[in-house]
Amino acid sequence: MSSNRIPLPPPYRIKVVEPIPFLSPQQRREAITAAGYNPFNLRADQITVDLLSDSGTGASSAAQEAAAALGDESYAGARSFFRFRDAAAELTGYPYLLPVHQGRAGERVLFANLLRPGQICISNTHFDTTHANVEMAGAEARDLPCREAADLDSLEPFKGNIDLDALERTLAGPDGSRVGLVLMTITNNGLGAQPVSMANLEAVAAICRRYSTPFFLDAARFAENAWLVRQKEDGYQDLTPQQIATRAFELADGCLISLKKDGLTAIGGLIGLRDEELFGRCEANLIATEGFTTYGGLAGRDLERLAQGLREVVDPAYLSSRAEQTARFARMINEAGVDTVQPAGIHALYLNAGRLLPHLSPGEFPGHSLVCQLYLDGGIRSAELGSLYLGALDADHRVVTPAPFELVRLAIPRRVYTEEHFAYVAAVLGAIAKNPERIRGYRIASAPERLRHFKVRLEPLP
Ligand code: F0G
Prior knowledge:
By secondary structure, this protein is α/β, with parallel strands linked by helices. Helices cover 40% and strands 14% of the residues. It folds into 2 domains: 25-47 and 315-460, Aspartate Aminotransferase, domain 1; 62-312, 3-Layer(aba) Sandwich (Aspartate Aminotransferase, domain 2). It has helices at 25-34, 62-69, 79-92, 103-114, 128-136, 164-172, 198-210, 222-232, 241-251, 276-289, 300-312, 316-335, 353-356, 366-378, 387-390, 419-434, 452-455; strands at residues 49-50, 96-100, 120-123, 140-143, 179-185, 215-218, 254-258, 269-273, 348-352, 380-381, 383-385, 392-393, 399-401, 407-411, 442-446, 457-460. The chain is globular.
């Protein structure tokens, strides 16, 4: 196939555009200072290229907007729900499906009915809100990433996997009876957007069956994981991304999906279940806290966009061009002198800020310094994934135990930015990499107890 050699362009062209602002260096300095050096406090109209998140930030298609016009806003039994349910059932195969307004709502509803206080939830890596929702259910969130994940430069294909030996040891050991759930995050957002292999999922399913432990997928990026499986794992080359995703769902007892990613919509989520009794309990909770069974916090218009988005996202031409786009962006950044977690995943790149800024100790938050510099120099918004996010702090907000790595995530919204935007980001990074010693560290001025990174305020060190 000639397409193996010449990458095809994205299978869409741009129909509607939105202007982006360009602030002066002085305006950017004022903006980030007023934001307490926390990019979550910036206004979107102060940002030139926004790589904070790939969640809910994608572009809608003409077909999605046309479908939205047909949205049925009936309180119960809306046509739009059944279209959404059919698309979700075809993809996941689960008999019981509950819409929710976003992923974390699904986490709250499911964990309230599946986890008991004192239990343990095991994952390859919990996403931050997932971690928080496990704890809010009174349980412990325990990550067991595979060993290969610890080497940021290794080209191992499935660094998103769980450590199967550690999982088995935990289930067989003294904590085994307390494990209430095994939750596999595909792709592994907390660990470099690395994919999880089907072989790993099959092994997890077999272990969970042996210990009668519920096994769920946190499948926010189910299509991107399926694409990487198709590219990298033997035996999947002849299956479609949808078939691979469906096979992954088949292995589990249920799923949570934030549909703000691979649903290709601004809002939405899903709980998928096999167990009728658990469904009944979750449904009662959903009706009390999210909305009736046939809308779960979503408008008919959203359900229509989702029904269409779930079909568009598994298009091989779309997934191939998105994966290529990320791979090219990684090469531009690496050639500009900044290392990224290898190999490149699809929804985000993770910059190795610790290596770029060795003059800053973890307590001076090198990842955060790079986040601020990207904004100051280029109006680019990104997210720290280092000691500011994950480190253990003392009462004075000083780092006691640093994070294992000091990373910065550049998340890539779907169908939004062009090659020139990525070249611009790589050029800003290249200029930073030429003279990294000028970059100062930061200290925390104030921080909340839970989910620190969202509300923390900082100041530059003198
Ligand atoms: N699970 C994973 C793996 C996620 O990446 C996210 C969100 C959620 C659950 C929660 O879903 O936002 O719809 O409530 N991730 C976004 C991100 C916010 O930027 O990575 P939500």
